Amino acid sequence: MKMKNNGLPYVIIFALIFCLILSGCGSKTATTEVEQEKVVPVKVALSEMEDLPEYQSFPGEITAVDEVSLSPKMGGKVEQILVKEGETVKAGQVIIRLEQKDVVSQVNQAQAAYEAAMAQLSSLENGQLPQQIAQLESAVNQAEANFNNAKENYERMKALFEQEAITKQQFEGAELQYSIAKEQYESAKTQLDLTKEKTAPESLSMAQAQVKQAEAALTAAKTALDNCLITSPIDGVVGAISATVGQLVSAGYPVATVGNLNSVEIQINVTEDRVSGLKVGQEAEVTVDAAGDSVLKGEVISVSPFKDSRTQVYPVKVLVQNEKNLLKSGMFARVKLMVALHSNVVTVPEDAVVSYDGTSVVYTVEDGKAKANEIEIGPASMGKVVVTKGLASGKEIIVEGQEFVTDGIKVKVEGRGDTK
């Protein structure tokens, strides 16, 4: 009994172990069957054949339209600053005045020299030369009369001498008077001719040259006086003023900036593989963090055909209207432009593409199962990517849940829709 009683527990233990083993084997078989019957819920959309515009954002800096750096044309001391930064100015308005007293003195001296030269010219034209010529003409007339009288007397005395009616001495006296009168007449004519043809024109020419020289000196002095006033060449807003009253500034030294902020320009740099897709008049979307979250409309106004030799990119300018005056010169901006249009291409959402060690795959749904499709992709834009090889349009592709599926696994479509 004891032994019998002692052996009974062993039988029970072996029975229990055997039951446990059988129970474990049954559980494993059930689990495997569950795994084999696993179904992954997914959402799908159709791959599409469409025209896909490709966009790219470019960084740039805002500048005022017609932004101008002002600098004096001559050196001098700053006497007065007539505007403040941020003030609106008109074209021609004086921004800064340099000291003028020395230049005013030069203008006065030049004015006096000009007036003296004009007076001399006027005197020659209306006084000295006409009077001198009149005197010479009178002398010529007198000499001509004397010559004619001497000539008549000479001819008469010659006839009398040939008739031996007068002495040789008397004839020679008449002949001498004739020769003297003739020389005086010819000399007077020569003097008159020289005065009319050479002396008077030369005197006038010299006087006119002196007037022109004095006029040029006066113009230069007045220009120097004007250059003491630094004016705005455009309607706009005053930017930074770098000069101070009393400061000595040299010619070409920047003293202020003026620009038109009613509209602004943004210059961006575009690489050679993108510049051909841009054209003047093209619309742009502009975002400026400093001006808020709103997207501003812009327009491409120039596309340089020449590459910048330093940066090896092409400068492109975008114009943006600034009626609300939100944009300031120097702000950072991002410009979004369409750089290409891919026509008649197959597209899928970017999120639908799964990458395995550099290989791109999209899953399609066929007969209730996921099928892995190895594809080649092209440009991406607006949440979509171009499929260049490996997929046709109109295919049901998995757009949600694709990270949980494998090739051949059963799937359950729980949602359908357009590509994102």
Automatic annotation (TrEMBL):
Instruction: Write out the coiled-coil annotation as residue ranges.
Output: 107-224
Keywords in alphabetical order: Coiled coil
Instruction: Give residue ranges for domain YknX-like C-terminal permuted SH3-like.
Output: 345-413
What the record says about family reads:
Belongs to the membrane fusion protein (MFP) (TC 8.A.1) family.
Where is the YbhG-like alpha-helical hairpin domain positioned along the sequence?
99-227
Which Pfam families does this entry report, sorted A to Z?
Answer: Beta-barrel_RND_2, HH_YBHG, YknX_C
A Gene Ontology cellular component where this protein is annotated is: efflux pump complex
Molecular function in Gene Ontology:
efflux transmembrane transporter activity
Q: Which SUPFAM superfamilies match?
A: HlyD-like secretion proteins (SSF111369)
Q: Which residues form the CusB-like beta-barrel domain?
A: 266-338
The name this protein goes by in its record: Efflux transporter, RND family, MFP subunit
